[in-house]
Amino acid sequence: MKEIHYERSLKTAILLTVVFFIAEVIGGFISGSLSLLGDAGHMLRDVIALIVSLSAVKISKKLPSKRKTFGYHRIEIFAAFLNGFFLIAIGLWILWEAFHRISSPQPIKSIPMLIVALLGLGVNIFIAFKLHGSKDINIKSAFFHVMTDAVFSLAVIAAAILIHFTGITIFDPILSSMISVVIIFSSIKIIKDSVLILLEFAPADIDFDEVVQDIQKVKGVRGVHHVHLWTLCSNINIIDAHIYTQVKLLSEIEKIKKEIKTSLEKYNIKHATLEFECEECVLPDEISKMEH
User: Fold this and answer.
1) Parallel, antiparallel or unpaired: strands 221-233 and 269-277
2) How many domains are contained in the chain?
3) pLDDT by residue (tens digit) across 63-76?
4) Among 2-11, 150-159, 207-216, which range has the highest average pLDDT?
């Protein structure tokens, strides 16, 4: 029931965020506020994060086929990769506009800017409340994206108040520059993380040696080699490894396998292919050393 609740919350969050993204774009042009347009760009990033999270939840329910043995899990990574470049383009455009506005300030309607920013803060707080408490890694990620955007909404509110009482409009392009820098760097990280996953690198947040040590701690395991650890998508890690054991009984080997898989759950490893060997095979690099 909780999974259904969070899936509905994600759908609601996507709808609200898209609607308010459009509202911020319109509000930005009406008020002349570049920081509102920057926050809209940041909200677009939230839309992408929320869609990726919802996709991960939905895709995890789909059964793989003979042609697509891992299903559609990589779609979310590919989408994140492409969207990263799109967001960088938005960030650079805002930065360029901010540079021109700092050198040549333009009038800003602070009241519309303030109203839209306040509504944006309300939307972010509501979405954060709906997503709060989930243990799912994707929903947690979406929650933190929304909370970050709430902080930017607060910054836009502060800028609107300062402009209203001081008449100094330079606060707007300065704030928009800061927002665009955050968008650009966060987008670079999205692209980098996506590339590492697509290249099947080991997950950055997992200590490879620690994983091997945990396997070796299981009673009956005498050695571990030919270990391959990679990420399928944002919430699924995969491992395959050769396990050396002197246990001969098949039922005991099954117990060892089950215990290994249980010990790997904390690393979010949901697929483990374990090949058991009664004689420890020699790795190619070890053969090379022996020959020399």
Assistant:
1) unpaired
2) 2
3) 566 677 676 777 77
4) 207-216
